[in-house]
Amino acid sequence: MNLPIPGPSFFIGKGDDSLISFGSGQPDLPPPEEAFQILKTFRNFKYGLVQGEFALRTELAKQYPDAEPDDFVITNGASEAIDLTLRAISVPGAKVALPRPYYYSYPHNVTLAGMEPVYYDLADGKIDLDVFKKTAKGCKAVMINSPSNPTGTVQDVTTLKEVEQFCAREGIYILSDEVYKDLIYVRENYLLHGPHVVTVNSFSKTYAMCGLRVGYLYSKDTALVEKIVEMKTHTAMNTSILAQDMALAALSAPPSYVTDYVTIWKQRRDMMYAGMRALGLELWEPEGAFYVLPKFKQSGRVVSDLYYTYRIITYDGAWFGAPDRVRFSYALDVSKIEEGLRRLKQFLETEYTSY
């Protein structure tokens, strides 16, 4: 029997010509050409502003209604934005409501901040408002992730508005993880509003700049933003100013950069969804991001066998709170998707029949 895979870190950064990686959510498409132009002349290697370079914050403010540059903090990816926000609002033992399935880091982020994760289970990837309200009541904060990693679902606007109103009444912080907001196939993104809403975003997915680690948070809660900046002063200090300059340049790319890529993601989504349905797998059709989450029995064994025997990287749904599923990313070339589906078919017709 193949060895079990301990967690996502086993796969991150791995890759060779024999592997088909349906694992990490890392776009295979290039960043905008505008970002590369910065490298020709960049010569600034001094410390930068802890809150983030003013020019980048100014440009981001144009994308949000009534926003000011001081409403933003530029972070080392969206991950640092979530980490800093949770620690800034932390009350020892307080509860934070997370969707389940969840992005695999969320529970760890909460516990590392000294709080307790509790879960509102999604129904086919969607928020059930009764379940949400029952779970969120009395919590310090809730996490919303739409479009979702790992489900690929997009929450209905009416649902998000009800979440806003409920959390505003209850005095609950909302951390809205919107790193896939530009990769939606069904509608425009809806920006959550409220007195204690923190919007988290990143250049990793929209602009294919994962390794540069440029994320940000946006909030109209001035006191919270100031507390986060003070905390960042004593942790990471400034985010890479080279990466921030490249991010700023990426924002100057024509709108077609994003829309053309969304067309590609949707074509790949259609291919993955149709291919898996043809293999008899049960899954819902993604509405955004670039993940499918089909059902599998013994998901950990599936991930191990696919990797060691068929040279396919996948992520165990158990890492996301969905132990009866396996996450596949379709952030890879069509030819690799085709080959991956061919290998998956072979697996389903051989080893999987004996599970």
The total domain count is: 2
The number of helices is: 11
Superfamily at the CATH H level of the largest domain?
Answer: Type I PLP-dependent aspartate aminotransferase-like (Major domain)
CATH architecture tag of the largest domain: 3-Layer(aba) Sandwich
- Total strands: 12
Biggest sheet character = 7 strands, mixed
Overall geometry:
globular
The radius of gyration over CA amounts to 20 Å
Q: State the name of the first-level CATH class of the largest domain.
A: Alpha Beta
Mean pLDDT: 96
Structural class: alpha/beta
What CATH calls the topology of the largest domain is Aspartate Aminotransferase, domain 2
- The first-to-last residue Cα distance is 12 Å
Low-confidence stretches: none
Query: Helical percent range?
Result: 25-40%
Order of helices and strands: EHHEHEHEHEHEEEHHHEHEEEH
Describe the protein's architecture and organization.
36% of the residues lie in helices and 14% in strands. The protein has two domains: 8-25 and 256-354, Aspartate Aminotransferase, domain 1; 33-250, Aspartate Aminotransferase, domain 2. Strand 5 (141-145), helix 6 and strand 6 (173-177) form a beta-alpha-beta unit. The strands form three sheets. A seven-stranded mixed beta sheet has the order 2-8-7-6-5-3-4, sandwiched between helices. The N and C termini lie close together (12 Å). The chain is of the alpha/beta class and 355 residues long. It is built from eleven helices and twelve strands. The mean pLDDT is 96.
